[in-house]
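Predict both folds.
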Amino acid sequence: MPIHNKLVRDRIPEIIEKTGKNFSTKILAHDEYIQELRKKSYEELEEYMNAGNDEDALEELADLLEIIHALIECHGARFEHVEEIRKEKAEKRGGFKERIYLLEVEDE
């Protein structure tokens, strides 16, 4: 039996069960859960980086967004609160829409 040892989406056990395969799971403690969400974010980001087309890229971005939603809840907040923070930062420092690439800044 292959060993996965990774965080999976909530319905994966149900999906595996429908195939008739045996499997085992456990429920993570809060700290373990955050740690595994962080690991999963790297995994999904790597998959996004390796996406070969827009459709695959959007699939991976959706996975990243799902992880972000879960992490926000872990930190006791709501997505709307994080969106407010994002907007404030964008207002003060701008976003990334203008594609500005900083080359260098003169030392004092």
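Second protein follows, with its predicted structure tokens after the sequence.
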Amino acid sequence: MSDFFKGIDPLRFDPDAEGLAFRHYDPDEEVMGKRLEDHLRFAVAYWHSFAWPGGDPFGGQTFDRPWFGDDMAAARLKAEVAFEMFEILNVPFFCWHDHDIRPEGASFAESKRNFDEIIDLFEQKMETSKTRLLWGTANLFSHRRFMSGASTNPDPDVFAWSAATIKTCLDATHRLNGENYVLWGGREGYETLLNTDLGREMEQMGRMLSMVVDYKHKIGFKGQILIEPKPQEPTKHQYDYDVATVYGFLQRFGLEKEVKVNIEQGHAILAGHSFEHELALARELGILGSIDMNRNDYQSGWDTDQFPNNVPEVALAYYEVLKAGGFETGGTNFDAKLRRQSLDPEDLIAAHAGAMDICARGLKAAAAMLKDGGLERARAERYAGWDTPEAQALLTSDLASIAARVEKGGIDPQPRSGRQERLENLVNRFV
């Protein structure tokens, strides 16, 4: 037992509390016949919560954590503190990269031994904790060896190292009964086309993903394989730019039935989309798996990974999740970090508690909008003309036949209002 969170009791639902508490998130509250905890499936991100030092592009570490260090004693203390925080927040899940939980060794074998020791510790902790593993993943972007990518690297030895790292992390995720395994290609892209063979790199990336899927089945891992799209930063272009790009990639390699997406709000914004756009498209394509919930600072223009605090944005996101039938193996992972001036242990708890409240408010608003049905009725009315046999016949006809019908007369289309402002007003009744 550490004393990092000394004096901070487990949080409870108390709308009138003066200190740390949940004001909107009651895990046992039923919405659409399901407990809020089971709808939202919150997860704590190990990397931002326990490994991030508080730096930014212009300055280094501001956090002073007792577990910061490059030895196994520090890694064990970090795990101790992590599970204490999971208990304070009463979260059902957490997520990790291998790099977050163990120190880098002098060789692959030493790094793996360090990693396996912490996985042993996680397994022991999880025996007495309610917190389970939402997903594991490999960090194939921080170390300098990955400066030119992992699976897309021009050096085959880096490809091999990456494959071995993914295998190790997938084995550990399977061992801990993780519900998903995520692949995020942080440097799977290029800086300049002048030295890049696009076709070769995409073939290598497709082969790596195919091997991951094959290995999943070989070891009997029942969880979902997920890709997390991201358009840029740090690379100029990444091959998993957005949901549409990922789906095309999956189809190219015959993996669209095997792999889904883990969509992050901040990445959606960097791709020039809204979060709900990416979620809606993934829902329509049948590949919506899980979400990373955060927000960007819209004035900064980069991935600031802030905790969510915008109820309307969150409500529209969960509207798409609920329309998809809710999460199956996925959940709401807070891929978010404190601001570098938020130094105190209490800040870490307050950030998560506030985000959980925001998500609860958003999901309840989304459920109310679905129950009201106003948005769905308006959408159905807008496309009602397509419900007639004559309109449906257009989709099985040919250009010449359609043109002949138009030329014959009787068709004189007139514009109809899209009623956007009225629909925005409708949403505002709930948020």
